[in-house]
Design brief:
Number of strands of chain B: 11
Oligomer: heterodimer
Helix content of chain A: under 10%
Number of helices of chain A: 0
Order of helices and strands of chain B: EEEEEEEEEEE
Number of helices of chain B: 0
Shape of chain A: globular
Order of helices and strands of chain A: EEEEEEEEEEEE
Distance between the termini of chain A: 41 Å
Largest sheet of chain B: 7 strands, mixed
Largest interface: A-B, 21 and 25 residues
Chain lengths: 114, 111
């Protein structure tokens, strides 16, 4: 079974600084997707960024980028120029196999200091 | 487009009562999912469906039933609610193999 591990329950960053959120996963599949979802206090799940395993290039979306290390099964999220609106819970998730089920990590709460 | 909607947004039940949560999507997605979110546990898959008329068990299916009679709707039922089912419930849908789109969640409290 696939597992996703987010070992840091909380992190804090100064506004305008850079922060990296860690995620590791375990799978025997060769083709899969990895995601970072953001959950603000509104509870809505918002997709931040996704990575397809067969692509070697790391995904980027504006201030958000990933460091995807397939051999090490590591998928970290870097947030540059942190903003107050980035404060939220962030979930790393894996999707693979025929039914595309998502397996989530336990999440990390990110706070942004003004 | 409304995306994924969930009804109701909040509900309080007494132990032993039953209820049904409704999920609707207007994106013509084949795949639909029900998750529960508990503090420190992330989201865990309860049941899912890969098409109209099909359902399958996820990671934590006990105490829940589902039905997918119409492609756009996915119902989650609790026949006899227990305090352990106090949680936030999310519905999601997708084409399969890529991004899942989530509803706003339902906060359920079982007393």
């Amino acid at each position: 079974a696939q597992t996703v591990t987010q070992s840091q329950p909380e992190m804090s960053v100064q506004e305008a600084e850079t922060v990296t959120l860690s995620c590791t996963y375990d799978t025997s599949e060769s083709d899969y997707y990895l995601f970072w979802y953001k959950q603000p206090p509104s509870r809505q799940m918002i997709l931040v960024i996704r990575q397809e395993a067969y692509k070697q290039q790391n995904a980027t979306e504006n201030r958000f980028s990933v460091n995807f290390q397939k051999a090490a099964k590591s998928f970290s999220l870097k947030i540059s120029d942190s903003q107050l609106g980035d404060a939220a819970m962030y979930f790393c998730a894996y999707s693979g196999g025929a039914n595309s089920k998502l397996t989530f990590g336990k999440g990390i709460t990110l706070s942004v200091r003004p | 487009n409304a995306g994924v909607t969930q009804t109701p947004k909040f509900r309080v039940l007494k132990t032993g009562q039953s209820m049904t949560l409704l999920c609707a999507q207007d994106m013509n997605h084949e795949y639909m999912y029900w998750y529960r979110q508990d503090p420190g546990m992330g989201l865990r898959l309860i049941h899912y469906s890969v098409g109209e008329g099909t359902t399958a068990k996820g990671e934590v299916p006990d105490g829940y039933n589902v039905s997918r009679l119409k492609k756009q709707n996915f119902l989650l039922g609790l026949e006899s609610a227990a305090p352990s089912q106090t949680s936030v419930y999310f519905c999601a849908s997708s084409w399969g193999g890529d991004e899942q789109f989530f509803g706003p969640g339902t906060r359920l409290t079982v007393l």
